[in-house]
Write a structure and sequence with these properties.
- By secondary structure, the protein is mostly helical.
- About 65% of the residues lie in helices and about 0% in strands.
- The chain contains ten helices and no strands.
- The chain has helices spanning about 1-20, 20-25, 30-35, 40-50, 60, 65-85, 100-110, 115-120, 120-125, 130-135.
- The longest helix has 20 residues, at about 65-85.
- The chain starts with a helix and ends in an 8-residue tail after the last helix.
Amino acid sequence: MKKLVLFLIPLGLVSIFALKLPPLNNLLDGPQFCGSCHFMEPWVDTWYHSAHREVASCNDCHIPHQFVEGAFYKAYTGSRDAMLTISGQIPRNFLITEHGSQVVHENCLYCHNDLMRTVGDPKTDGGRYCFGCHRNTPHEL
C-alpha cells in the first residue's frame, strides 16, 4: 500500500502540471472544449461575438497565468465542474465563484496593464472588479 501511495502522489502531481503544458492546455481550452457542456453554450456564444475571441481563449481569462497556480486551479475547477455536471448538481444560473472573479480580474490586469497604469486598478482605487463596469465584456448575458 505504501508503494502505491508513493507512486500515486507523484503521478497525480505530474498529471496536474501536465494540464498547463501547451499541447494538453490547448486541447483543454477554447470553445470546442469549454463549450462541450450544454450549460456553457450561452457564454461561448457571446464570446464568439466579442472582440476577445481574436486575442483570448477561455483559459486566458479564467485560469491563472502562473504555471503552478494555474495547473492546480485548472485541475480543481475542472474536476469540480465535471463532478457537478455528472451528478446533475450544476445550478441553473451557473455563475463564477468569488475566487474565480479574482482570477478573471487579475487576468484583465495581466493583458490590460498598460491601460490600467493610466486609469488605475479599480479593485484598489474604487473597490470593484474590472467587470463591475465592463459586465458584458466579453459575455453579453
